Amino acid sequence: MAYKTTIQQHTYSFSDLKTLLAKASPYRSGDVLAGLAADSYEERVAAQMALAEVPLKNFLQETVIPYEADEITRLIIDTHDATAFAPISHFSVGAFRDWLLSDYADLLTLQQIAKGITPEMAAAVSKLMRNQDLISVAKKIEVITRFRNTIGMKGRLSVRLQPNHNTDDVKGIAAAMMDGLLYGSGDAVIGINPATDSPAAVTNLLTLIDQLRQQFDIPTQSCVLCHVTTALQIMHKAPVDLVFQSVGGTEKTNRSFGIQLSLLEEAYHAALSLQRGTIGNNVMYFETGQGSSLSANAHEGVDQQTCETRAYAVARHFNPLLVNTVVGFIGPEYLFDGKQIIRAALEDHFCGKLLGLPMGVDVCYTNHANADQDDMDNLLTLLGVAGCTFIMGVPGADDIMLNYQSTSFHDALYIRQVLGLRPAPEFEHWLIKYGLMDGNGRSLPVAPSNLLLKNYL
């Protein structure tokens, strides 16, 4: 089906929905690299005008990747909730945007329709939005998940404590964990990217985190971000809380990661059977990032933002505790500069929350990107306003193992203080108990007599 619009006697035609979505996408280097971007600003506007007229129902009839060729397409179509979709089924993409920005789209209503929205619908409407629109709608949405604490409540911002070490040195990781905890980070998860994916190394790191957690009765969860097959291998031998996996928006992408939906299903049910959560059973942690499908030569001709949003269908199916878009990590080939990184992060956060996911963002960039820490400060502040579920806490904001720039424990303190945000409630109570935070959410100096330090050191 062709889509057309006319600007000053010039008619622009787009052969199918996949092409229309790509041409309507805000400019980014990855789509140019893939040969999918609009050839001019005028063509992009024409595509956005045509996209605004497309009925949402079309996305259920015309898929961007054929149903028979891709298991994620089958997942999207087969699990679509027609009842949840009914209240918005009469909208075009443009009318959907206007409705989302209206007072009619309140928290309860947005929660009720989430499972009726397909990733392509979410991606489409985001392409018609300014940054402030993405922030405004995302701010309305609350997605709450639980394991040992409660993540995602309004007025709260959690932090993944990321104590990576380039040799998995136990002392270095332990020091980083203590540093983060003393600054109030770690309520989302204490999550380590291991230098090696070996079962023995992953087990050692999980045991290290779990011993610290139990010693001080810390209401949080642990994760070593190994491949899902490694987690399955050690699950009944090591203290596995959350099962991690990077996921993409096409079946080919996920196969390049060594996974498919049936494997994730197996891991999900295995983790549930452990019953390690104390107040909830959200046991999965997924990471994504715009450009992953293109970098794997598996994008199927779909623009990178739509591919990214399709990855959220995979995540949504497994009721995760956390979903994290590692937005600037893949590099400038896909998001060239600070402006593109900021836009992509706001899109990802908006689309994920609209689909009902607990979205966090790794506010980050690689050293060869045209970006700096001021760009990241701007993005961090915008995400705080938008109600982001969690961010990263990396010592000094400089990950010595993954070699990229992220956010520090101090950055988390900044955004909580300026916007009046607080940690997860159970974790906040723990911080107060150990004298690391006062009742007003302010970080306190660490006294030499602090039991947390004395008992651990």
TrEMBL record:
This is Ethanolamine ammonia-lyase large subunit. Adenosylcob(III)alamin binds at P194, Q245, S295, M401. Pfam families: EutB. It comes from Chitinophaga niabensis. It comes from the Bacteria. Catalyzes the deamination of various vicinal amino-alcohols to oxo compounds. Allows this organism to utilize ethanolamine as the sole source of nitrogen and carbon in the presence of vitamin B12. Substrate binds at R160, L161, Q162, N193, E287, D362. Keywords: Bacterial microcompartment, Cobalamin, Cobalt, Lyase. Pathway: Amine and polyamine degradation; ethanolamine degradation. One of its GO terms (biological process) is ethanolamine catabolic process. Its cofactor is adenosylcob(III)alamin.
